[in-house]
Amino acid sequence: MILVNTDYISGKNLEMLGLVKGSTIQSKNIGRDITQGLKTLVGGELVAYNDMMNEARALATKRMEKEAEALGADAIVNVRYSSSAIMQGAAEVISYGTAVKFV
């Protein structure tokens, strides 16, 4: 599956199939939450949260691709990501784009 953040793929004629999306809500365990909270006192990268968000984006992307495959898509164009805090230590990540078929 080809994923691009543009509305075209060079050299390909595209038939639009529709919007596809994938989402997930992720959190870290209470132990990680406490250690990351302490890290904010001294500053620096919050590695556990960075890892959590990377995992969330990967899962959201996989779910979006699965939805596109069900439509018979060859690619997804205009891929975008959005995230929001659901509660302290938990975030929702959504990926979305337009499923297309090569003509």
What is the topology?
Blueprint: E1 2-3, E2 14-27, H1 30-42, H2 47-70, E3 75-87, E4 90-102
Parallel strand pairs: 1-3
Antiparallel strand pairs: 2-4, 3-4
Protein name: UPF0145 protein SAMN05216249_11769
Family: Belongs to the UPF0145 family.
Organism: Acetitomaculum ruminis DSM 5522
Would you write up a description of this structure?
- With about 100 residues, the protein is an alpha+beta fold.
- It has one domain (about 1-100): Translation Initiation Factor IF3 (2-Layer Sandwich), CATH 3.30.110.
- Helices cover about 35% and strands about 40% of the residues.
- It has a four-stranded mixed beta sheet.
- The chain is elongated.
- The chain starts with a strand and ends with a strand.
CATH superfamily: Hypothetical protein apc22750. Chain B
Low-confidence stretches: none
Q: In terms of structural class, how would the helical and strand content be classed?
A: alpha+beta
Oligomer: single chain
The CATH topology turns out to be Translation Initiation Factor IF3
Helix content: 25-40%
